[in-house]
Amino acid sequence: MMAKKLRSPLDRTRPLRAAGQSLTDELNDAAYDHIIAPMLLALFAIVLAGLEWLRYFNDMKPNPVIYSIAAVMAILYAVYKVWHSRKRLAQIKLGRDGERVVAQYLEWFRTSSFFVFHDVPSGDANVDHVL
Q1: 4, 32, 79, 99: which could form a disulfide with 20 (CB 3.0–4.6 Å)?
Q2: Three-class SS of residue 18?
Q3: Does residue 14 register a pLDDT over 80?
Q4: How far is residue 105 CA from its own chain's centroid?
Q5: Contact at 8 Å (CB) between 26 and 91?
């Protein structure tokens, strides 16, 4: 007997978007691009420099200066990206939270036979709320 292939219900209809969905997506992207990626780069450089220093102290005659310079540069880059991203991330979070508050108030209209849609994509932009 052949097993029936299961299909996701999302294949047929797309779920409604949550209020602030675009900003949540932007926040996740910005957090990765501006915080996680630079921190991982800095961590990688620190590990490399640490390994070279370990070889240096075990008389293996490496030159850890190059890796240490790379580590310092990676740390400076990570600090710069994190420092300059804090304001933008705070703005995105504030916008997302504002959209969610407005969405909660608009839900009351559903009791009056209105349809409420949130975060409707429109080309390169989006409409936050539609009644």
Answers
A1: 99
A2: coil
A3: no
A4: 27
A5: no
